[in-house]
Design goal:
alpha/beta, TIM Barrel, 2 domains, nine-stranded mixed β-sheet, three-stranded antiparallel β-sheet, 23% helix, binds iron/sulfur cluster
Length: 364
């Protein structure tokens, strides 16, 4: 592996699979719902896909800007392979322009940078670090989906699973590709997808493509799905928007889909905003329960009782959590409540290896 910082005037990366040639000579990228139509020599909004020699290239193919071992609960994912260690990687670039982005140094970097790693080297690193899964995260993974797919196929050969932490601003083409290698996805809403919020603070015209992505994943794949919703105080905490999102999840995806309401903290261009009041998060949680969702959680509030999984039947604490750690596990071998036998829809058994490890950084 070697570190690179090259100009995109060279032909870097790899030809993109998700591209359509247009009659006007431009090339349409179908990796995300921006659907950029790109002329020769230019790049798309994400900054890492562009047209060279009349073809679309993924310039960051094989360039990993960061890699960490995290517990799966940090994604957050709570109903898939709990307690496992995840090797989390990212490239530069993003298709969103979030003013609150915690990873803006990576996501808003419109440069082709990173450690050169083949898909096999990514998987070897995951194995070496004792990971059970690979997460494509920190920036939007659909923008580098061809690289993620090749890593993911290699990962399956070593019995390592694959997770997207995605904003869900995808297309039928990218969902179809996800179906070839992805095991789990957590789709991150922000401000419950309210139109005014996503226009002003994310830079997209509407959240409609995210809802379409979720239906496409439901209909065309078997990917385990969880939902998160970042609640931003004052501007992204509308309770009616949250109700609409919860109703969509209940009606279209079902009552067993986990939903996580995450606490905002000030970052990037939104340093003037405070942390989300706990009471606001609790109101969102109450709406989810009222709309019939059985597994609603609060995130980024370590020690809060709504981090736990409660049995929908007897209301016992089925899984006790503190932050990303799992305390008591009150399920039997079939993941049924120890108290009343109700089946909790969790894929996999508890793996305790990760909760004892500190997070640490592997790459830059
Ligand atoms: S992935 Fe990038 S180039 Fe492709 S449509 Fe989205 S923003 Fe545009």
């Amino acid at each position: 592996m070697q570190r690179s910082n090259s100009s995109i005037n060279e032909v870097l990366g790899k030809k993109a699979e998700l591209q359509v040639k247009l009659p006007n000579g431009r090339i349409k990228c179908t990796a995300c719902a921006r659907l950029c139509e790109i002329p020769e020599g230019k790049i798309g909004l994400c900054g890492i896909r562009g047209v060279t020699n009349n073809s679309l290239y993924l310039y960051v193919y094989g360039r990993v800007i960061t890699g960490h071992i995290d517990p799966i609960e940090k994604k957050p994912v709570t109903h898939y392979r709990p307690g496992t260690a995840i090797y989390s990687i990212a490239t530069t670039g993003c298709n969103w322009l979030c003013k609150y982005c915690q990873n803006y140094d990576i996501s808003q970097r419109r440069k082709i940078e990173g450690v050169e790693m083949t898909p096999k080297q990514v998987v070897d690193m995951a194995v070496e670090q004792g990971a059970h899964g690979i997460a494509y995260t920190y920036n939007e993974p659909s923008i580098f989906i061809e690289f993620a797919k090749d890593c993911g196929i290699e990962a399956h050969k070593k019995s390592i699973f694959n997770i997207f932490v995605s904003n869900g601003y995808d297309t039928p083409d990218s969902v179809s590709m996800m179906g070839k290698f992805l095991d789990c996805i957590t789709v991150d809403f922000k401000g419950s997808g309210k139109q005014e919020f996503v226009r002003q603070y994310i830079g997209i015209p509407s959240a409609d493509p995210i809802f379409e992505t979720l239906k496409e994943i439901r209909d065309k794949t078997s990917i385990h799905t969880e939902i998160t919703d970042l609640i931003v105080p004052q501007v992204g905490d509308d309770l009616e928007a949250a109700r609409k999102l919860c109703k969509f999840v209940y009606d279209e995806l079902g009552p067993d889909i986990p939903i996580h309401f995450l606490r905002f903290h000030p970052d990037y261009k939104m340093m003037d905003f405070g942390r989300t009041p706990i009471e606001t998060l609790e109101k969102h949680h109450a709406i989810a329960k009222k709309e019939g969702l059985k597994y609603a959680y609060l995130g980024n509030v370590p020690g809060h009782p709504l981090e736990h999984t409660y049995c929908p039947e007897c209301n016992c604490v089925a899984i006790e959590r503190y932050g990303y750690s799992i305390g008591s596990w009150n399920l039997d071998n079939n993941n049924c409540c120890n108290n009343c036998g109700y089946p909790i829809p969790i894929i996999g058994k508890l793996n305790r290896s990760t909760s004892r490890r500190n997070l640490f950084q592997i790459l830059q």
